[in-house]
Amino acid sequence: MKEATDIRRRRDAGFIAVVQERSGQNLSACYQCGNCTAGCPAGFVYDRQVHQIMRAAQLGLKDEALDSRAVWLCLACSTCSLRCPNNIDVAAVMETLRHMARRENRVAARKVEKFWFSFLDTVRAFGRAWEIGTMALYMMRSLRVFTDLDLAPEALKKRKFGFRPHTVANGGSGAVTRIFKRYRERAAREGTRP
Amino acid sequence: MNYTYYPGCSAGGSSADYEKSTRAVCAALGMTLADIPDWNCCGSTPAHAVDTELSAALCSRNLDMAARQGVRKLLTPCPSCLSNLRHAAKRMENPQFRARVDELLDNPAAPEFPDVTSVMQGIAAHCGANGIAAHVRGSLSRLTLAPYYGCLMSRPPEVMDFGDPENPLLMENLLAACGANVLNFPLKTACCGASYGIPERRMTARLSARILQLATDMKADAVVAACPLCQMNLDLRQPQAAKAAGARFVMPVLYFTQAMGLAFGLSPDMLGLEKLRVSADALLRKLELPPAPQGSAEGGKPCE
Ligand code: SF4
Ligand code: SF4
Question: Which domain holds residue A84?
Answer without folding.
Answer: 2-103
